[in-house]
Every structure is written in structure tokens, then in C-alpha cells.
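Backbone Fold Data
Goal — C-alpha cells
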Amino acid sequence: MAKETKDYSKYFDFSDAKIISEDENGKKIRIRGREIHIFSEPNQKQEKQRGKEAVQVHYDTAVPEELSRLGAGKHYIVYTFGCQMNEHDSETIKGLLEQMGYQPTEDRKEADIILLNTCAIRENAEDKVFGELGHLKHLKTEKPDMLLGVCGCMSQEENVVNRILQKHGFVDMIFGTHNIHRLPFLIQESLMSKEMVVDVWSKEGDIIENLPKKREGMRAWVNIMYGCDKFCTYCIVPFTRGKERSRRPEDVIAEVRELARQGFKEITLLGQNVNAYGKDFTDMTYSFADLMDDIHKIDIPRIRFTTSHPRDFDDELVAVLAKGGNLVEHIHLPVQSGSTEMLKMMGRKYSREHYLELVRKIKAAIPNVSLTTDIIVGFPGETDEQFEETLSLVREVGYDSAYTFIYSPREGTPAASMKDDIPMQVKKERLYRLNRAIEESSRAINEQFKGQIVEVLVEGESKNNAKVLAGRTRTNKLVHFEGGPELIGTFVHVEITDPMTWYIKGKIVSSPVAAV
């Protein structure tokens, strides 16, 4: 039975709303007794546009002195949904809160501000957030002075903001992905006015440098660019994250150098499509390959990146990655489908043959490379034959692992208007078969590690056994082995004794031979 399509129209009925005032600073309205100050609100038509105006870079971004003690003696919680980009945004949010005097807590009853940093890529992520809001409503009733905010990608969607205004009037703040730097001002406005504050920029903002970040552990994420211009037909990201805009290379390199000075062991460069880095520069020619080559020279043990688009993965980048050193042998290369016809429907702008040729080049240059991917099943119109093409590609490439999904329509994307003519049971059966194929590939690759000695960055204790440590290899394999907590944050050499499907077991060796 097909899933019932959501009726978003009920969230656009504002017949009971009253405009209190309107000026250059936005407008104030009243809905069901709650006053709402809308500085700016999402507009999907504007989000689809790609303006030619130059992106400005701002460096003077310190929290104003008058706001630096606003959170003194108070506590915060930030819940993060979604991808690494959201995780990194949460690091910035936490950094801003702590510059305002707030301290972290895990106790909801102790929290003075709770923010939900949201993901819009799939419908179930959206459902989780609204479910969480339902739980937090009771806490807000018990503690009305607590600030409750929704931010991130969901906030960039018109229907989401309208749903919150109509159904979740207890929320205090809504802001988006382009104006995180305005958080201190929005908190001040919300505290002083007692109104709901909405400030979502539909047009992508400038690049804001020098924002504080609350990083934990020995691994760090570094944004190198923002936004996406690919407009895959199923994807909401180009609307929620805006047009592609690259940070200046000197700013990225300076941040990585500082992280090296602070002792971080691993850096992951982030972007919706890192391969497009530098293509928006008008004053110089400087590509992602150039950036990786420069960062290759910085004294940090491991450098990763995510995520890449096959269309922009050029020979120069393959050549740089083949240099090894601190450039690890793991590439996440989303394919989405093994059918050229489906790839065309998805707006991916490459063919099955192009993808397989790219894989061939990568494996020739980096023989021990680990490849992971994203795959969607049940895209509108996908036939049994086209799905079989995906299975055959999975077996031909030999992935170490994959993120697999049943297609989820997102309102406002071209695919949402396509006829979703595949029964859910068929989609589930395809997902099951795909996952079995990925498992077979992963297990076969892991078996090859038996008896080998690998370098592992120890991340922490296993969730199920405090005597067992967990860490990752250069190829991003999860390794479990016995050891003490003093090893957390260090590199150790582990001999693989027991390959599993999604992780491998081993034992520490004191005098390693050449590690792989």
C-alpha cells in the first residue's frame, strides 16, 4: 500500500493571524495568542535562484561584549540531526553559546536553552524532529523561561516554518543555515521580547570566518565550502544550503595549521560537493586538487574529505590523492544508481560508464583504496532491470560499505512531482537485496585483512564492553581490540584476527612490521 502523501496546505492557513506591525526590521504577527517577530522567512522561489553578486568574506565576528555574559550561570543542550555538515554547524553553535557564558549539560531539566539542529534530506529525519518537539512541549510547560529553538536545514523550508507557527507555538526561535552567526542577537531578542523570533535567510549569506567552535576529541571537521549547484532532482540541499561558495584557501590552510598546532590527529574537509571547491573563484585558478596538495604538506597524521561528486572528480585530484602520506586511502563516492537511465532521471549528469571508469582510475592510482557510496532504491520509474544494474555495479566496484535508502520525496524538488509508481513492498525487497550485496562485498574485503597489521586511531571504549577499545584505520575500517583507556587518542598497531561484516577484531602488537 502506497504511503499517504502529506497535505501541507493546512500549514499555510493564516486566516487567524493578525499583523501587529511591519517595518524595515520585519513584521510582528499574532497567532493564537503568541506574538511572533519575523525578521526574515524562507522563500523557496528565492532559494532556487543563483545570484551573480560577489560573496563577501567577513572576519570581524566576535560576540559583542554586551552579549558575552548573557548566558552566565546558564546551561545549554544542542541536539544534532543529519550529516557531518550539521555536526560541524553544531560545533559553531556550541562555540557561540559558550562565548556568551552558557555551559553544556545533558540534563534537560537543567537546560536554559535547547536547540534542535535539523536535517531535511529525508522525511523520517523531519518526523524525528517534530516527535522531539512533542516531547519538549511538556518540559517547556514546566519551565516556560527555557528557550527552545529549531535551526538547520528544516528551518529553510517554508512548510516546516509554517507548521511550527501553526502547531508548535511554544517554540521560541527559528533560524536557518546561512545566519548561525546571528544566534547571540536572536537569543537576546527572544529573551527581551518574550516573542517567537524567526530569522531565516532565503538567499545564501556571505562567508563568515573566525566563528568559535566547540570541538571535542582528536578529530576535527573543517568546512572548505558551502552550498551545492548540482540540483539533483530528488535533493533539497541546493535550496537549504544555497549556491556553491568556497572559503579562501589561505583561511582553510590557516585553520588546518592551527588544528595541527592544537594536536588534532585527523581532519575531515567538508562540503556538499568538495570537488567543486574553487570553481567560484573569479580572481584565481585554484582547485580542490590544489587545496589537497597544499594541506598534504601540513603536519597532521590524517586528512579525509566528504562528500565528493563523480562528475567533478578529475584526474588531477586522483594524482594528488595517490601521493598518500597524510591523505588517507578512503573515498566516499556517491553513485545513487547503477542505471544510466535512472542517473539521468536523478539529474546526476554522469553515466554508469563514466562512474566505472573513474573507479578504475582511482583503483589504478591507489591500489589499497577503500570505496564507500550512497544508493537510492525505488526512485520514481525504476524498473526491475534498472535495479539489477545497480546490483551489478555494486558487485563490480566492490564497496567497503554503503548508505542505502528508499527514495523519499521532498516537497519542492522536481522528483516530488514525478509519479511514485513503485509499491512500498517492492522498494523494501530491493533495499533488502541491495543490503545483502553490500554485506557480501564488505565481508569479502574485510576477510583480506586477516593477519595484517593496521594503524588504528583509538577513538574510545566500545559501547558494549569497557575493556574493548574502538578505533579506525586509514581506510576508515572500524576495529575492536582489548586495551586500556590511556590509549584513547593515540595511534596503535593492531593485528587483525577476526574479520566481521561491519567491523574487524584484532590484538595490539608491540613491535609492528610495515603497517597497512
Notes: The chain has three domains: 20-199, 207-447, 450-508.
